[in-house]
Design a protein that fits this description.
Blueprint (H helix, E strand, L loop, with lengths): L4 E4 L7 H16 L4 E6 L2 H6 L12 H28 L2 E5 L13 E4 L7 H4 L15 E7 L10 H9 L3 E4 L2 H11 L4 E2 L9 H7 L9 E5 L6 H12 L3 E5 L10 E3 L4 H9 L3 E4 L2 H9 L3 E4 L6 H10 L17 H24 L3
Parallel strand pairs: 1-2, 1-4, 2-3, 4-5, 5-6, 6-7, 8-9, 8-11, 9-10, 11-12
Helix pairs in contact: 1-3, 5-6
Length: 358
Amino acid sequence: MKNKIGLITFHRSTNFGSCLQAFALYKKIEMMGYQCEIIDYRCHAIEARENLTVPQISLFKPKSVYHRLFLWPTLKRKANNLEIYLANHAKISEEYTPDTITFANENYGKFLVGSDIVWGRDITNNDYVYFLDFVSNDHKKYAFSASAGDYSIRGDEEKVGELLKSFSRIAVREKETIQWVKNLSSKEAEWVCDPTMLLTAEEWKELIPPTKILDNYVLVYFDSPDHKCLKDAIKYGKEHNKKVFYIDYYRKQMSGVIQKKPTTLNDFLGLIKSADRIFTASYHGILFSIYFEKQFVFYTRAHKSRVLSLAEKLDFLEQCGDSNNTVYDLDYKRITDKVADFRNQSIKSLMEILNDEA
């Protein structure tokens, strides 16, 4: 128990990015020679947000009937596939709830929270388990690649500040989160990469072989709120005689695009790796475009600081399509070294956390 690390994150999800970041952090810790387990914590707000609960049908709400009969089966299959993958490739703990999470203190020597927007109280409905409030004083607490997402005043800043003070070390995913931590707790935080960057592209290809797709297409993954992302992709597809594949589970068939509904990690990564160009408002859509050295245009949506922070760090702000109508090619000779440097620096920080006995 003394040497086992308890990792708490967003691992139960229908979102590919959440699953991939959880697996990446677990896998890297394992590869570095440490014993780790993903804590199977059940947060009601997250499970509802990720469509993990069976939707209720109301005859007075036709949309609820459509969701239950036509959308839910695919989302459920996707969630099951992601759960099976993690169960087969990572150690998952017994189930914990807000009422039982304190018992986790008996099973781990230190606790690590991250990554994803685990400190987004607007997402977790102020669930302070993600600030490790349940951890007893004789256990050490760490954060790696944690993100707050939303920095607006919520009225609980004093409580959050006290919880942050109890961490032995804090490493965060966005530059803005460094200042947020400093303002609330006076603690210094480090800027590290998303856990998916801890693994190289070659390691990803070996661990989750991307499905090969023999087609000439551009890919849309997460549209922007103003739909410019999707419109730009359709325009680009017409101009270059390419199909437009759109990963989307919620809408009926749309004109000008071919909807894709991948339910496995292999198919998802295959759609990215085989695409000619990617138009995305997804944080992890951007990252895996970079890992596979794909040309892409990115857009912002909720919690936009995370993508802008990444674009600044790796120097690709010119790829932002929010107000730009020109599609540029990314110079990967420039970006590859920046990715490697960020990865190496972040691995060093993670190693120091894992070795910390002070």
